[in-house]
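can u pls check wat happens w/ (Z)-L-Arabinonhydroximo-1,4-lactone
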Amino acid sequence: MTVESTTPDLSGTYGGVGAPFPNPVLPGFNPDPSVVRVDGAYYIVTSTFEYLPGLPVYRSEDFVTWEQIGNVATRPEQLEISEVPTNMGVWAPTLRHHDGLFHVIVGVPGGRGCLVFTATDPAGPWSDGIVLEGLNGIDPDLAWDEDGTAYVTFSGLILSGPETGKHLGIQQVRVDLATGALLEEPRALWSGSGSMFPEAPHLHRRGEHWYLVIAEGGTERGHGVSIARSGSPVGPFTAGPANPILTARSTTRPVQNTGHGDLVEGPDGETLLVMLGVRPLGGTRAFSPLGRETFVTRVEWVDGWPVAEPVALAPRPNPSEHVRFDAPLDNRWIGVRRLPQEIASVDTAAGTLTITADGASLEDVRPAFVGRRQLTVETAASTVLDVSAGIGGLAVRYDEDHHYSIRARHEGERVQVTASAVVPGIRQEWTGTLPAGPATLHLDSSRPRNATFGTLGMTSDVIALWAESGGEEVRLAEVDARYLSAETAASFTGRVLGLFATEGTVVFHGYDAVGTEQPVTPFGSID
Ligand code: 6LW
């Protein structure tokens, strides 16, 4: 597969002492980042919930240019998420390097449990993973003391059984990583500075202190990063003097929900805080179409405590993808609760991707759908397809209850095209026909044009669904797209654009996603 990217060369624009980094660092659905520096290179892993392969591994040498070098979970048995409920699956990994091995610890609620994977090469292959039996909580972190004792620090939010919803604060337990055994009863470590959902702990040693970085306030507008420290990894921990050290709550900053942070030493020796955030668009409510993305900001140390700068928005200009199927699928294609290869195959000589339907529709938990993260709100996506042996098309998906799509089928001498908008309990369709032949389907998301502070001014974007074939064009629908956002969908994911089949086999001749970054002035900002 060839992917041509039209992202301009950024060298010299970003990085360097005090200069901004591109932000988001990892655009699109990339929440709960954890970062590590090994031999001068940076690696980030993010959450993937119900998608496979899971846990993408990104690499950079300068924090400016990032490449996805692999995925931790390339084999479904590593996670067991084929039946996982939406919202569950792969939550919040921690990435660390110890004794020559990369480690990823991750909770998979509804799946295999709390897991530890290792690899010598972060591009993979990664191990089958061991289960930490009996660890009941989320967002596990892994740290070692000088003696090599391994500590798992985690958020004691109970997600199954009769105590579901109960929160035990930040907990810690010593573990044996060879067997997965817990070596003691989990102990309470800190409950944060008083906001809800203390979670996402990361334990870092710096000088004589162990710093416990956590998230508080929930993963929505109240999100923030707080800190405590101790002379020992097991505590007692003293809260920092100015918690939260980072939050965008009650501000008009363009990057909101900033929290779930991890620390790393940056290329110029400064400390960087990598965290999740969203880019809400619209009026006073505002919706974040792309979901939770990965951002970075700088941290200064004042009297032994970190002070974080507000997160600046500095998106890479216009990242676009032009995919041709002249080589196997790259590691950025994802499937829902199954690997893309289960339903999609590439014919490199013909330059085509064939998706074989298996009775599932986009409303099913395992649709015959393969996709890629949407990287910019303004994205013109399109595909050319042949539906002589099936029905299929192009979709943007948040989860099985939230998706807009356009599909094609043969109808005598014509091609019938149908746009569909699905939100929970509501489904609307628009149909038209075109001359037979390879059809081009389009799904364009864009900011509403000429919107004032009325209904459309409240939304994030609109999605236009249209098609072309045999020299004719049919515009089927333009739909308010706020219902496919972090604020409205059930899933913790983000928008994934992709190709699908619902009947027979459908042959795709390419996939294009042309992105345009528009300047953002948050509604109500004073300067
Ligand atoms: C994750 C929690 C959170 O476990 O959202 O933002 C949850 N933080 O820490 C799902 O990503």
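The radius of gyration is 23 Å.
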